[in-house]
Design brief:
The structure is a single chain. It is elongated and about 75 Å long. Strand 9, helix 9 and strand 10 form a beta-alpha-beta unit. The model has no long low-confidence stretch (mean pLDDT 96). It is built from eleven helices and twelve strands. Helices cover 42% and strands 19% of the residues. The strands form three sheets. A six-stranded parallel sheet has the order 6-11-10-9-8-7. By secondary structure, it is α/β, with parallel strands linked by helices.
Length: 284
């Protein structure tokens, strides 16, 4: 789901301010009287991938000039080929030139994330596992990068620390153990808040299954250990969901999914993705 513009507009406005600074000297030099003619631009994919963020790009131009017409030819989530026409934009040439870089940067970044996500989703197709993203995002970009992973077919994990309880290794160490950590947080959270605990060993899994948890994460476990851990959870806490995590790659994700976990979380769709190359061409 794309966040509402009441949330996105401050981000987009700040990024435009960063790029324009005290004024666009290039565009201002072309049209010093401020009366730029109406023109047309097209966006063309320069590589194969999954497109994401076109609605956001349209908003970038509209923040500069509400009269700009941004017509999407492709839709977010669509697989595109190099050479495909993605959008047509009509408006003041000054606006098209000033908004070009911010709008393109966002769509190329988000499309790269969506494209990488789609590759991971395809790798586990036919299994019961669902791909889940993480909080490893660029500060200021989390809402948009998580939007891009969902466009690519993933499920969003927590958006922030206030979303749910996830007790990781350092929380457990700080509390002195899994049981004590869970006991403490249960005293202070709303009853609707889910609790997930990270485990790294069979001993931790055997402790966690007795705590009526919503999710048990199996972190950085070898396949044989993960298989044993899954059997323990299914036997002793069948309603608890199982999430696998830790150094997930395209080469390993299918083997993990086939073990029967419910979720596989990885930051790779965001941290290892490459921008999808897109160009804008003015048509006068």
């Amino acid at each position: 789901m794309l966040p509402p513009f009441v949330v996105l507009d401050p981000l987009l406005t700040e990024w435009l301010r960063e790029d324009i600074g005290r004024g666009d000297r290039s565009t201002g030099g072309l049209f010093p009287d401020g009366k730029a003619p109406i023109g047309k631009a097209v966006w063309i994919a320069k590589a194969d991938g999954v497109v994401a963020g076109l609605t956001i790009a349209a908003r970038v131009f509209h923040l500069l000039d509400a009269t700009v017409q941004f017509v999407t030819i492709a839709q977010d989530g669509a697989a595109v080929k190099s050479g495909d026409l993605l959008a047509e934009i009509n408006g003041s040439l000054a606006t098209l030139l000033m908004g070009e870089r911010v709008a393109l940067n966002l769509v190329m970044r988000l499309s790269g994330v969506a494209s990488a996500t789609a590759d991971y989703v395809k790798a586990i197709a036919g299994t019961t596992a669902h791909l889940v993203d993480t909080r490893k995002t660029i500060p200021g970009m989390r809402l948009l990068e998580k939007y891009a992973t969902s466009v690519g077919g993933a499920i969003n994990h927590r958006y922030g620390l206030d979303d749910a309880v996830m007790l990781k290794d350092n929380h457990i160490a700080a509390a002195g153990g899994i049981t004590e950590a869970v006991r403490r947080v249960r005293e202070h959270i709303p009853f609707t808040t889910s609790i997930e605990v990270e485990t790294e060993s069979i001993a931790q899994v055997e402790e966690a299954v007795n705590l009526n948890l919503d999710v048990i994460m199996l972190d950085n476990m070898p396949l044989d250990m993960m298989r044993e851990a899954i059997a323990i959870v299914r036997d002793h806490s069948p309603y608890t969901k199982i999430e696998a995590s830790g150094n997930i790659t395209l080469n390993s994700i299918a083997q993990i999914a086939e073990l029967g976990v419910d979720y596989i979380s990885t930051s790779a769709m965001v941290t290892r993705s490459h921008w999808l190359d897109i160009s804008m061409r003015i048509r006068t």
